[in-house]
Amino acid sequence: MKATGDFGPTPSGIDLAENQQARMLGAVITLMIIGTLAVVLRVYTRSKSSQTKFGLDDFLRLVALCFAYGTAACVIISLKYKNGWHQNALTDSEFIALGKLLLTHVFIYSATTTLNEMLHSDVLSTHFEHSLVVVRFPVYHSRVFYYSHYHYVCRLLAPLSHFWEQYTNSEAEGTCIDVSQFFLVNGIAAVLVDVMILCVPAPIIWRLQMPKTQRLAVISILLLGGFVCIAGITVYIIIYVVMYDSIFIRTLDF
């Protein structure tokens, strides 16, 4: 594959034929299958139990799953425009299409994470009322995150087209958000909320009238959710390294 020339000559040692599309598609399909199975199993369990009824949390889980499908759709559609290929293999029109899909993906993803955090917090607050302040904080954080996200992007990104035109049109004028800083700060806040939600049940379980070994076993099972926190930390470390890498910045500033 030859460079399109829209983003300058190809740096030495770069194979434009290489791409990450297979890995991207595999990751998206795998995660969507897992997410769908989790929701389907929950609905099936609810339908078979005579002691529980479908509630608001079940409805919100279905809505969150639909938003998750939206993020997956953005990724799958983006493959058509060479998402996962080196920048020099893209044309201006393909880069613009990817910019629009990325911005759409960000808004849908923020709605998905907001619903998930609200669901987890509401479930915990139902069972651990004395920890209401600690549990409700993630709810308020998720709502503030969602509204501030829209406010921050819509106020500082003017016009919206400047999000991609700053790289494709040398005469483009406007203001843009600091993407790396914005996602890094919000990522740290999201990880802190996940840690809080993870730790809330531990002291309550420890005070139960159960043998010590059983209490430790139950807490250990709950702490398996810590893999989510580790994954979140890893993701945002990678984002930080990539976004502040000098070569990456020089490429975008071309």
Automatic annotation (TrEMBL):
Where it sits in the cell: the answer is:
Membrane
Q: Which UniProt keywords apply?
A: Membrane, Transmembrane, Transmembrane helix
Residue ranges of the TM segments: 22-41, 62-81, 183-206, 218-243
Cite the Rhodopsin domain residue spans from the record. Answer: 41-235
A Pfam family of the record is Fung_rhodopsin
InterPro entries membership: Rhodopsin_dom_fungi (IPR049326), SAT4-like (IPR052337)
Major location category of this protein: membrane
Q: How does it sit in the membrane?
A: Multi-pass membrane protein
Which GO cellular component terms are attached? membrane
Q: Does the keyword Transmembrane apply?
A: yes
- Give the record's family classification: Belongs to the SAT4 family.
- Name the record gives this protein: Rhodopsin domain-containing protein
Highest classification ranks of the organism: Eukaryota, Fungi, Dikarya, Ascomycota, Pezizomycotina
